[in-house]
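Justification of resources, computational component.

The compute hours requested in this renewal are based largely on the per-chain cost of generating structure records like the one below. Each record pairs the submitted sequence with a full structure-token output. That output is archived, and it is also reused by downstream analysis tasks.
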Amino acid sequence: MTKTNKTLKDILDVILYENPATQDEIAERLGLTRRYVTRLLKPLIDENIVKRSYILDLKKYEEIYGDEDNLFSNDHSASFLIKGMLQNMADHVSKQLKTAFEALINGDKEKAKIAMEMDYATNNMFEKLRSSVETVVSIDPSTQFSKTLIFNEIGYDLERIGDYCDHFSKFVLNEPNEINDEIMITLKSMYKSVDKMISFSMDAFLKEDLSLKGDIMDLEEKVHSLQKKALNYIAIEMAETSFEDKEESTYYIYLSRLVKSFERIGDICIEIMDTATEFHKNIPRSTVPRSFRDDR
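The structure output for this chain reads:
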């Protein structure tokens, strides 16, 4: 991709995702001169691909320019742009989980605060994604409406994972008690498993690698096995604790919540995998709750 086309792609990204009101605003956001922005946009404005209100008509862009200069790699459709947003969001959520869990391992309150701040970014990324999906649907009536809205579902799933990450950060900030070695070792194994599940499920959706389903299901089984192991350790510790010690009782409740958070993240990854199958193969997802299915 030439430097000029890379700059044009950046300009179109700003138009699609940030809804600028003027060319001055586009130029300021990208550190360009207004004159340069005008020169690059003029052919697209003349062809009515970019409207005067700075809305990008993706369908018309594709009809006229096709794959010319490979502007958006091998697929410059709206779905490609939104998939890029989802990939960025998935990478961010994985970093958020890693940051929150490292804070738990080290009892690092500053890192826990950083992880919680990352959750605000996760929420903002979802809002931008949702806005972009709505924009694509509004400017391209030929879009497959139901499939396009699935992008919102995946974004919402990632936002939910971000919410569960907060449980680890809040535990570090609010609980003075340390986690014993046996439980921590089990939690570390759960973290490694769900981290892979996030990566695999997003690859299944974004890269159409549906062959990963078996690996994801195996990891889910491992997470459930580790969950039982961790809850058993917690139950043993609770049995040795006085019922009158309310602080200790609260500690075990919140510790159990951490274990449950890993299970929930794993379940969300299975949902993403099921959605990927529906999206790419048009195989409807089951309406039977997962807890009642034979394949669980």
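The chain has a mean pLDDT of 84. The CA atoms of residues 17 and 128 lie 7 Å apart.
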